[in-house]
Automatic annotation (TrEMBL), chain A:
It comes from Caldilineaceae bacterium SB0664_bin_27. GO terms for cellular component: plasma membrane. It is a multi-pass membrane protein. This is Sugar ABC transporter permease. One of its GO terms (biological process) is transmembrane transport. Gene3D superfamilies: MetI-like.
UniProtKB/TrEMBL annotation, chain B:
It comes from Caldilineaceae bacterium SB0664_bin_27. It is found in: Cell membrane. It comes from the Bacteria. Its main location: membrane. It is a multi-pass membrane protein. Keywords: Cell membrane, Membrane, Transmembrane, Transmembrane helix, Transport. InterPro entries: MetI-like (IPR000515), MetI-like_sf (IPR035906). GO terms for biological process: transmembrane transport. Belongs to the binding-protein-dependent transport system permease family. The lineage of its organism: Bacteria, Bacillati, Chloroflexota, Caldilineae, Caldilineales. This is Carbohydrate ABC transporter permease. Coiled coil: none annotated.
Length: 325, 298
């Protein structure tokens, strides 16, 4: 970083370290480190906290996935047993399938829909309505997530819910059902929560990305007669691919790891209809005290998210804006 | 393409363009109205008595039943105070550590600076599912189960990971001349941090504070497993438990006859949303910028 060399040239009181070239051997590195004791001292509290509470737990989790483990009992090594049990369990294919369905849907609701919304808002000419739309995008975000989930639970309620109420009002009472309690609809009801999925961080992030594209590109594009859908696909989309990548990764992470909504709405039920691996991990740990088994599921989820994130990062490359060509 | 042709094209394209604009306005408005429905229902329900809730589901019922809010506060207030205490203590520590860390990495030069920096940033890549179970065990081992400290520590230890990332970028943008002249006046590191960096990085700290406060306010799974004592419980878990008792057992002090629990319950939800609304009104700029930037930069 340029700031670092800047301070060194000025021979500051605080940063004498770079006066000694660090390349010339171990001894001078040691000397430089001793001279920079202040920097290390200032960072010490952060690193002590991180070591105990942020480095140690994930490493411990990776190790304990191979152990039988519960509070107050000596952990015993069981090798790959947990993984064997998990992948041969009759519920596992179903919950993995549920997870991939949710993941695919989260890509649609979290990455695709907000993009369409952002492009539409971005092209609105009238700046006052543009600001108003931005404001209205934010309002639903001011409601805490748990309240949103509990509200939707009420909306789906078989007796008091507004969805069944509306259906009956329009003479469609035969369609009314226990949305979250019916094996056929429960998972789709979970997906439908948050309809129409436009408000929230996604649209704002895309709007931020579109705002960074320089005006001259749009001008050039208009002169060439590139408008509407063609412009969206040829100009807007390639230039916000960075944001698309981010939203895709967030959708993957949400699909694989977030089970809070399911825990509150159905707790995996009815039966195992809405079970996902994350929720199984939670149940195994906190209901049956199988912490080692839970840690092994955590490790499987980590491998899935890590692989998927890497794959998305490798395949999606944002276009570089170059006005001169 | 010459300029003359493009000006000739312009009048003919203008009309479809206007239709396009009107269509967009319509579509956006419909989508936004649809996404506001739950919020609308939440607010109208919070002012209803049981019968109004049963029979006037969509309309606003008059007179507004403000007493729901008093009844709700009796229960929700304690959870909110708990959460604010935890958030405040955690935030202060987190901001201090992020400020110091950001300064050290942006303004000081020392061996292994980049190595140490990336050692911190790498933690952003560790998904929480991997650490959730083992972290619980570590906290149990340290005797932190059912303590407020178990809620403060994740903020204090985990917050500076993103905090240092953000503050380093922010502090790197402060002109070097300011630090230089202070050093000439004999200022030490702590002076440089406290007297120069702190006042100039308030916008960055505000963004961090807002993002972390939202995080604490929404935290659910961690307090659910860590806190058994209802008197220490956080707001999100508190609302979850309240909703369960309203549905299945009734709530002390609320009338459970004729759907009477629902009005106060929704009033409780509204009260629990107010701090975020307040935060948005006061620090709206940092709220939006923080959300957007954190998305762009990570």
């Amino acid at each position: 970083m340029t700031e670092g060399t800047g301070t060194a040239e000025q021979g500051s009181v605080a940063d004498l370290s770079t006066r000694t070239p660090t390349r010339s051997g171990d001894l001078s590195t040691w000397q430089a480190m001793r001279r920079s004791w202040q920097a290390y001292a200032l960072l010490a509290p952060v690193f002590i906290l991180l070591l105990i509470f942020n480095y140690y737990p994930p490493i411990l989790g990776l190790l304990r996935a191979f152990y039988r483990w519960r509070p107050g009992v000596e952990a015993s090594f069981v090798g790959l047993q947990h993984f064997g049990v998990y992948f041969t369990s009759p519920e596992t294919p179903r919950e993995l399938f549920n997870m991939f369905k949710l993941l695919a849907f989260f890509f649609f609701s979290g990455a695709v829909i907000p993009f369409i919304m952002a492009v539409l808002i971005f092209r609105i000419r009238d700046t006052e309505s543009k600001e108003l739309y931005r404001l209205f995008l934010i309002i639903p975000m001011l409601v805490p997530l748990i309240v949103v989930i509990l509200l939707w639970k009420q909306i789906y309620d078989p007796n008091l819910g507004v969805i069944n109420g509306l259906l009956e009002q329009f003479g469609l009472g035969f369609l009314a059902r226990n949305w979250l309690g019916d094996t056929a609809t429960a998972l789709y009801a979970i997906m439908f929560m948050g309809f129409p999925w436009v408000s929230g961080v996604g649209t704002l992030i895309y709007l931020g990305g579109l705002g960074q594209i320089s005006e001259s590109i749009f001008d050039a594009c208009e002169v060439d007669g590139c408008t509407g859908l063609r412009r969206t696909l040829r100009i807007d989309l390639p230039l916000v691919l960075g944001q698309v990548r981010l939203m895709t990764i967030l959708a993957v992470i949400a699909g694989v790891t977030s089970f809070q909504t399911i825990l509150v709405l159905t707790d995996g039920g009815p039966g195992f209809a809405t079970m996902v691996p994350g929720l199984t991990m939670f149940h195994k740990a906190f209901r049956t005290q199988q912490f080692g088994y839970a840690a092994s599921i955590g490790m499987v989820l980590f491998v899935i998210t890590f692989t998927a994130t890497l794959a998305v990062n490798r395949t999606v490359h944002p276009a570089v804006e170059d006005v001169r060509h | 393409m010459s300029t003359t042709t493009s000006t000739q094209v312009a009048p003919s394209t203008r009309r479809p363009l206007r239709y396009y604009q009107i269509g967009s306005h319509l579509f956006i408005t419909v989508m936004l109205l649809l996404s506001l429905i739950p919020t609308y229902l939440l607010i109208t329900w919070s002012f209803k008595n049981g019968l109004q809730y049963r029979w006037e589901r969509w309309a606003i019922s008059f007179p507004l039943r403000w007493s729901n809010y008093g009844a709700a506060w009796e229960i929700v207030g304690d959870y909110m105070i708990n959460t604010i205490i935890v958030a405040f203590i955690g935030l202060m520590g987190m901001l201090l550590l992020s400020l110091i860390g950001g300064y050290v990495f942006a303004r000081m030069d020392f061996p292994f600076r980049e190595t140490l920096y990336y050692a911190i940033i790498a933690l952003l890549m560790v998904p929480w599912v991997l650490s959730f179970i083992p972290a619980y065990m570590v906290y149990v081992r340290l005797g932190l189960l059912n303590t407020r400290l178990s809620l403060i520590i994740p903020e204090l230890a985990g917050g500076p990971i993103f905090g240092i990332f953000l503050m380093r970028a922010f502090i790197a943008g402060i002109p070097e001349e300011l630090f230089e002249s202070a050093r000439c006046d004999g200022a030490g590191v702590l002076d440089l941090i406290g007297r120069i960096t702190l006042p100039l990085s308030l916008p960055g700290l505000a963004t961090l504070a807002v993002l972390n406060f939202i995080g604490v306010w929404n935290s659910f799974l961690w307090p659910l497993v860590m806190i058994q004592d209802d008197a220490k419980q956080m707001i999100a878990v508190g609302l979850y438990k309240l909703a369960r008792s309203a549905t299945y057992g009734g709530v002390a002090g609320w009338t459970s006859q004729d759907f009477g629990v629902w009005g106060p319950l929704y009033a409780g939800y509204v009260i629990a949303s107010l701090p975020l609304v307040l935060l948005f009104i006061v620090l709206g700029k940092f709220y939006v910028e923080g959300l957007v930037d954190s998305g762009i930069k990570v």
